[in-house]
Design brief:
It comes from Desulfovibrio ferrophilus. With 332 residues, the chain is of the alpha/beta class. The chain has helices at 48-56, 82-91, 110-119, 126-139, 145-148, 158-170, 188-205, 216-222, 240-245, 250-257; strands at residues 6-17, 20-32, 37-41, 63-72, 75-76, 93-96, 176-180, 208-213, 225-230, 233-239, 305-308, 313-315, 326-330. It is built from ten helices and 13 strands.
Length: 332
């Protein structure tokens, strides 16, 4: 029996197109514990959003989960029936999208949508559903929630709409929320407010959170652990401060080096050379090989996943130096 809330092993999600098979998620493994905040980081096209959709069972044709295992509270999700998936979504795990209008219906009032989200999973009175909806809006910082709940989505600003989407995800007290870059389109002030609210909610409810983003500065202040994705693979993961202070994979090192900072004033920002490989025609061996300053002939082979005692994992033949010796090594 696993002690983890979410346990993903060798997950593979492909998209079958006329041009070829797009290996969007290529054999990733990760875990999330109760109350933990995990940051899932990577460039556009790295597979991080598809990972979230795979967990939710929302991969549409021509895509499908081609292999691996996703267990939630020790129950295998990939063998669920449609009815079980409907109960699972919203009730046990909720997803917050980058665009809140993917959650909100523009022609229905907020109260109608939130009450329906509760009563789809529970037999409660309309008055009780309304009370819980108002409470959820208050939790995410909506002022005068008793009045604003009667508004339509277009009557809210972008930041407030995103708060409503977060509140909708919280309605059924899920064990896990997957947030897919929900603050990317917002200004930094509103972004900071929403991140602060999410931290408070996780501490208050012991809810787990997967925060999907390309922004390492967001993860630095929010998450306990981080997993870095590249070309459909997790190439490094571990405690967030440990990874940021001492990156082992050259790609992680490049990502951190490209972030502006006060201690780099006047310096030219680092740019990772080259472009990400096509997920239809991945190069043999390490997918980062063509862009890597440490690459050698051995990188033509698929690198193993090396594990260290402190919970660090890296998928690289030439990782950076670490204070302890690796404890295990497995094929990726």
């Amino acid at each position: 029996m696993s002690s983890h809330l979410l346990d993903i092993r060798n997950l593979q999600t492909n998209f079958y197109t006329r041009a070829g098979v797009v290996r969007a998620v290529n054999g990733i493994s990760l875990t999330v514990d109760k109350g933990e905040v995990l940051g899932l980081v990577g460039e556009s096209g790295s597979g991080k959003s598809v990972t979230g959709f795979s967990i939710m069972g929302l991969v549409d044709p021509p895509g499908r989960v081609a292999g691996g295992s996703i267990k939630f509270k020790d129950k295998e999700l990939l063998t669920q029936t449609d009815a079980e998936w409907r109960d699972f979504r919203g009730n046990h795990v909720a997803m917050i999208f980058q665009d809140p209008m993917m959650t909100l219906n523009p022609v229905l009032r907020i109260d109608t949508q939130m009450i329906e989200a509760i009563r789809a999973h529970e037999r409660v009175s309309k008055a009780e559903a309304m009370r819980r909806s108002v409470e959820a809006l208050g939790m995410v910082g909506i002022p005068s929630p008793e009045e604003r709940i009667k508004s339509y989505p277009h009557q809210f600003s972008g930041g407030m709409r995103q708060r409503v989407a977060i509140a909708t995800g919280l309605l059924n007290n899920p064990d896990l929320i997957i947030a897919d870059e929900p603050t990317t389109a917002l200004d930094v002030t509103i972004q900071g407010q929403i991140l602060s609210e999410m931290q408070k909610l996780c501490r208050k409810t012991d809810m787990a959170l997967i925060w999907i983003t390309h922004d390492l500065t967001v993860i630095a202040g929010l998450a306990q652990r981080v997993a870095v994705m590249y070309a459909g693979m997790i190439i490094e993961q571990g405690p967030v401060q440990d990874v940021l202070d001492n990156p082992l994979h050259p790609y992680t090192e490049g990502l951190i080096g490209s972030v502006p900072g006060r201690n780099r004033r006047g310096q030219k920002l680092y740019q990772i050379p080259g472009t990400t490989p096509s997920l239809i025609d991945l190069p043999p061996g390490c997918p980062f090989r063509m862009r890597c300053p440490r690459a050698t002939d051995v990188c033509l082979e698929v690198p193993p996943v090396t594990t260290y005692a402190e919970g660090r994992e890296v998928c690289c033949f030439h990782p950076g130096e670490y204070q302890s010796q690796p404890t295990t090594e497995r094929s990726s």
